[in-house]
Amino acid sequence: MAYTADKPTPPPTAEELRARIPGWGADLDPTDRPSVPKEQPQDLNAHWTFPEEQPVPDGGRERSIEHGRLTPVFGTAQPLHGVSGAIRRYAYSRFSEARAAHWLLLLAGDRVEAAGAHLRSLATSRPDNPITETGIVAERRWAPLAGRRGRADVRHQWIDPLLVAGPWILAAVGVIAVGRRLLRR
Question: What pTM did the predictor assign?
Fold first, then answer.
């Protein structure tokens, strides 16, 4: 069982491995290994056999299908909510962490959350400013071309402005289209 105070089952000893695998450890001298002191048994002084579990919030908590239970302590600062939360819950309930679909759904949930945050910022008195928040102004001031040389992402730097400005341009086009449609009525 996971999360117990007991030390896990010890690995096979060097003698057992030498008997089982011919030639194993021929060059291994314990006095030369820096990790030998760390491998000595420690007195954990744990006062429990299984840690006290944190109460699960009313809305539940996402848990990977590989694990039989939640960890004893987990974060509750940002509970899942809305469409992005539904996408993330689906990723956790349906797909293993070893599947690409799990991670792609989590990425989609993040993008949906980001789009929602941008839309909410438009409803405030101080909406997001994509020009200053992306660092374009600072990049222009502090040697933009010299700072880009030697970076690992040189091949796809041309697409960065499209990825940053594209959603804002699409949103502006959508607002204009809706505005025109409303004015025609």
Answer: 0.54
Whose tokens are 């001298």? That residue is 29
Q: Which pLDDT tens digit goes with each residue over 167-177? A: 878 888 999 99
- CA dihedral of residues 84, 86, 90, 91 (deg, nearest 10): 20
CA–CA separation, 48 vs 45, rounded Å? 9
What is each CA distance from 51 to 6, 10, 70, in whole angstroms?
11, 22, 12
Residue 37 banded pLDDT, cuts 50, 70, 90: low
Q: How far apart are CA 156 and CA 148, in angstroms?
A: 11
In contact, 62 and 25? CB cutoff 8 Å: no
Domain spans in the chain, listed from the N-terminal domain onward: 77-144
pLDDT in tens, 49-64: 777 888 877 767 787 8
Strand extents, DSSP E, the chain:
none
